Amino acid sequence: MNIQLKSIWGKWWIPIRKWFYTLWLAYETTMRFYGYALSTKHYFDALGYPILAIISSVISFGICAAFLTFPACFILYKFFDTSNLTGTSLEARLKPYL
């Protein structure tokens, strides 16, 4: 007997989760990459290269955002937007709890 369980957060959570998880991931990765960019800037500032510090920190943040944050957020959004994206039974069993 297969019964689809309800989310532990209630009915109101189901339409919100695809945006909440995506925005949370975007926020967390942006804060981490901002920290990486600051570390890069501080490293080059200590060496005495302020222009290189600014350029390299902006480039490192941009690369991380373009290649990691945006694709990951899109995939996470699609995961919750599509009913069974991967076609596996694990996804069907896991989604109600998220």
Q: Largest sheet at a glance?
A: none
Say what oligomer this is: single chain
Order of helical and strand elements: HHH
Helix content: over 70%
What is the rounded Rg?
19 Å
Uncertain segments of ≥5 residues (pLDDT<50)? none
The N- to C-terminal Cα distance equals 22 Å
Number of strands: 0
Structural class by SSE content: mainly alpha
Using the alpha-carbon principal axes, give the shape: elongated
Keywords: Membrane, Transmembrane, Transmembrane helix
3D structure, described in words:
With 98 residues, the protein is an all-alpha fold. The protein has a domain at 19-81. Helices cover 74% and strands 0% of the residues. It contains three helices and no strands. α1 runs antiparallel to α2 (50-81). It is elongated. The two termini are 22 Å apart.
